[in-house]
Structure to design on (561 residues):
C-alpha cells in the first residue's frame, strides 16, 4: 500500500474543493435552506406533523440523504472523469499506484466532501427546526456508509462516462427521481396502497427510512432491512470497481 | 553495457484492430541517450506509452531495470519519468502545487529544495505560484518536464519535447538533458528534428509501421550509411563528362560549371586520388572544392523510403 500516493490524490482533490468553496459548500447549504423554506414552511403549515414528528424536522433526514447522495456521486464522478477529459490521467496510469489506491484517493475525498456538506446541512437544519437524534451511532453508520457507497457509485460513473452528457445522465435521470420518490418529503403511509407497494421497490426508500429511524425512531420499513440494503449496494459497487480493475475497462487502452 | 530497458516481441493491437506495434525488439543501454525516430503514426508514442504503463501490451515482454512492467509495475514505474507528447495539464492548479502533487503521487516524501532546483533549472521558478492555464505552451512543456523529474527518475522518456518550442527553451532543455545524463539518467526521446538526434543522441532507433527498422550507434550509422560528396567548382564549364572520367560516379551541375563526385567514405580507396589524376590529365582545372557528408536526415529518408 502506497500511503503517500493515496494521500497525494486525496489532498489534491480536497484542495480542489477549497478552491471552489462557493460551489462545493455554499451552494448545497443555500439549496437546502430553500427546501426548508418551500417544504418546511409552506407545506409544514398545512401538515403539522408526520407520525408524531413535526414536518420540518421530518424532512431533515431525507434532505441529508439527498445531498449526501448527489454530492458523493458528483464529486467522485467528476473527480475521476476530469483527468480522463483533460488527459492528465496519463500521470495516474504511469505512476506506481494500483487501481485500488487511485480509487481510495478519489472515493475518500468525495466521501469526505459529502460528509462535510451533510454535516453543514444538519447544522443549518438545527436553526430551522428542533432536531433529536435518538440513535446517534446508527445515524453515523448510515451517514458514512451512504457517503462511501455513493462515492463508489460516482467513481464507477466517472470511469464509464466518456462525455459530459453521460456524466450527468445517471444522477439526473435515476438518482434524483429515486430520492424524491423515496420518501424524502413524506412517509409512504401517506400514499395510496398501490403506490406504497411500488415505492417499496425503490432502494433509496430503505436508506431514508433507516436514517430517519436513527433520528426519530419512526420508519417505513424495519431498520435492519435498511441496513442490509445499504450494505448490499456497497457490495455491488465494490464488485463493479473490482471488475473494472480486473479488466482495465475504460481506463487503459 | 547493461540494458536498462529490454523489449522483447512487443505487440500492440488497438481495440479497433489496428496493429500499432509488431514484434518490437529493442534494448536501451543504461545511461545512454537513445533517439527514437520515425514518421507520424510509426508507433513511437504507443511504444513509449506501453513501457510507461499507459497502454496495455497485447503480447511480448518488457523489463525495466530487470523488473517486468506488468508484475513489478511499482518498481518499474518508480524508475520512469514521462514527458508526454500532448500538453496534458490541469488548469486551475499552480505550478508549485502540481509538481509537488506529482512527487507525492509517485510515493515520495515532499522535498521542496529538490523541486525548487528543478524549477530553477527549467526557468520556471518565477512562475511557481502561477496558475497553469496562464502559462504559454512552451512553459507548459517545461512544466511537464518538471513533473516528470519530480520523483527523481533514472529513466526519462521525452516524447517530442521540442515540438513547438523556441530556440532558447530548446537550449535550456538540452542543458537539462545533459545534466541528467551526467547524473546517469537514461534518456529516450522522440523527435522529428533529425539534426537534434544527430546532435545529442548516442544511439538511433528508427521505427516505421510499428517495426523497428534499425538500431545503431549514431557515429557507426553515419559511418556505415553516410555517403560523401566532393564538389568541384570548375574554371571552365564542361559540355559533358569526358570519356576517361566515365568510370567515376560523377554528375555535372550548374550548367557544367560544377562537378559532383559521390563516394563511399568507408572504403579505403575512395577514388579521389584517381579522379584528381584523371582531371589533370584532361587539363580540367578547378578553383574551389568542398566535401559534404550526408546527414542523418538523408539516411533516415532513404531508410523510410526503402521500407515502405
Ligand atoms: N487509441 C488508439 N486506437 C486506435 N489506434 C490508435 C490509437 N492510438 C494510436 N493509434 C494508431 O497507432 C498508430 C501509431 O500511433 P502513435 O501515436 O504511436 O504514432 P507516433 O509514432 O507517436 O506518431 P507521431 O509522430 O504522429 O506522434 C497510428 O496509426 C495511430 O493512428
Ligand atoms: Mg507520437
Amino acid at each position: 500500500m502506497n500511503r503517500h500516493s493515496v494521500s497525494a490524490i486525496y489532498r489534491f482533490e480536497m484542495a480542489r474543493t477549497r478552491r471552489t468553496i462557493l460551489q462545493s459548500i455554499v451552494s448545497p447549504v443555500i439549496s437546502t435552506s430553500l427546501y426548508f423554506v418551500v417544504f418546511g414552511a409552506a407545506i409544514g403549515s398545512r401538515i403539522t406533523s408526520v407520525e408524531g414528528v413535526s414536518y420540518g424536522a421530518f424532512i431533515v433526514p431525507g434532505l441529508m440523504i439527498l445531498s449526501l447522495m448527489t454530492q458523493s456521486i458528483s464529486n467522485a464522478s467528476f473527480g475521476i472523469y476530469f483527468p480522463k477529459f483533460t488527459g492528465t490521467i496519463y500521470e495516474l496510469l504511469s505512476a506506481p499506484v494500483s487501481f485500488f489506491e487511485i480509487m481510495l484517493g478519489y472515493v475518500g475525498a468525495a466521501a469526505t466532501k459529502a460528509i462535510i456538506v451533510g454535516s453543514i446541512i444538519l447544522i443549518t437544519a438545527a436553526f430551522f427546526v428542533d432536531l433529536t437524534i435518538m440513535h446517534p451511532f446508527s445515524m453515523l453508520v448510515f451517514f458514512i456508509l451512504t457517503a462511501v457507497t455513493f462515492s463508489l457509485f460516482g467513481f464507477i460513473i466517472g470511469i464509464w462516462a466518456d462525455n459530459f452528457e453521460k456524466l450527468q445522465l445517471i444522477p439526473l435521470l435515476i438518482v434524483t427521481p429515486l430520492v424524491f420518490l423515496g420518501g424524502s418529503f413524506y412517509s409512504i403511509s401517506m400514499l395510496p396502497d398501490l403506490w406504497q407497494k411500488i415505492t417499496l421497490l425503490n432502494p433509496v426508500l430503505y436508506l431514508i427510512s433507516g436514517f430517519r429511524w436513527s433520528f426519530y425512531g419512526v420508519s417505513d420499513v424495519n431498520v435492519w432491512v435498511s441496513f442490509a440494503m445499504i450494505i448490499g449496494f456497497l457490495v455491488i459497487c465494490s464488485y463493479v470497481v473490482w471488475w473494472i480493475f480486473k479488466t482495465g475497462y475504460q481506463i487503459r487502452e | 553495457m547493461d540494458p536498462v530497458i529490454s523489449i522483447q516481441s512487443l505487440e500492440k493491437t488497438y481495440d479497433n484492430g489496428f496493429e500499432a506495434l509488431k514484434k518490437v525488439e529493442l534494448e536501451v543501454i543504461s545511461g545512454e541517450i537513445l533517439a527514437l525516430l520515425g514518421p507520424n503514426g510509426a508507433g513511437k508514442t504507443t511504444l513509449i506509452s506501453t513501457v510507461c504503463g499507459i497502454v496495455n501490451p497485447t503480447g511480448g515482454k518488457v523489463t525495466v531495470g530487470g523488473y517486468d512492467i506488468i508484475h513489478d509495475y511499482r518498481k518499474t514505474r518508480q524508475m520512469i519519468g514521462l514527458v508526454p507528447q500532448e500538453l496534458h495539464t490541469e488548469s486551475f492548479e499552480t505550478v508549485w502545487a502540481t509538481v509537488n502533487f506529482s512527487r507525492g503521487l509517485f510515493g515520495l516524501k515532499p522535498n521542496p529544495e529538490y523541486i525548487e532546483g528543478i524549477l530553477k533549472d527549467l526557468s520556471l521558478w518565477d512562475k511557481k505560484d502561477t496558475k497553469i492555464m496562464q502559462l504559454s505552451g512552451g512553459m507548459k512543456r517545461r512544466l511537464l518536464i518538471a513533473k516528470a523529474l519530480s520523483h527523481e527518475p533514472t529513466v526519462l522518456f521525452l516524447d517530442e519535447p521540442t515540438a513547438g518550442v523556441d530556440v532558447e527553451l530548446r537550449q535550456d532543455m538540452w542543458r537539462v538533458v545533459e545534466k541528467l545524463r551526467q547524473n546517469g539518467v537514461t534518456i529516450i526521446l522522440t523527435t522529428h528534428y533529425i539534426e537534434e538526434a544527430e546532435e545529442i543522441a548516442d544511439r538511433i532507433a528508427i521505427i516505421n509501421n510499428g517495426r523497428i527498422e534499425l538500431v545503431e550507434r549514431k557515429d557507426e550509422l553515419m559511418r556505415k550509411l553516410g555517403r560523401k560528396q566532393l564538389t568541384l567548382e570548375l574554371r571552365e564549364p564542361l559540355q559533358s563528362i569526358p570519356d576517361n572520367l566515365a568510370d567515376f560516379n560523377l554528375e555535372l551541375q550548374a550548367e557544367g560549371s560544377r562537378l559532383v563526385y559521390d563516394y563511399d567514405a568507408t572504403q579505403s580507396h575512395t577514388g579521389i586520388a584517381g579522379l584528381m589524376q584523371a582531371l589533370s590529365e584532361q587539363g580540367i582545372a578547378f578553383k574551389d572544392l568542398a566535401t559534404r557528408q550526408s546527414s542523418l536526415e538523408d539516411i533516415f529518408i532513404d531508410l523510410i523510403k526503402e521500407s515502405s
Summary: Residues B 44-45, 85, 159 surround magnesium ion (ligand 2) (CB under 6 Å).
